[in-house]
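Trying the structure run again after the queue cleared.
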Amino acid sequence: QVQLVESGGGSVQSGGSLRLSCTASGFTIDAASMAWSRQVPGNECELVSSIRHDGHLYYLGSVEGRFTIAQDNAKNTLYLHMNSLEPSDTAMYYCAAELGLDYWGQGTQVTVSS
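Done. Tokens:
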């Protein structure tokens, strides 16, 4: 059974940092394409960053240079290191895995105050 469990969200001031974690079970993350997306209520979900199974990386333009996606295959965990956070980064952040079908975690809230 595929499961994705996010953690690491919280409330920080502008300029602060957070590290989101996504622990996977039921599959190995190095065999999948993994991604972080975020959603603000009333807005569409947007892809923040992804790492394909071939290693190709993607970053949303507004986070490039501030966020870093990484994975620890030994821990079967995906990370999103977020630095220089801005109030516009406030959202629910979701981890996703593409394994033929798409799987999503329950989300972790990030709130950045000015």
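The longest strand covers residues 91-99. Worth checking whether this holds up in the mutant runs.
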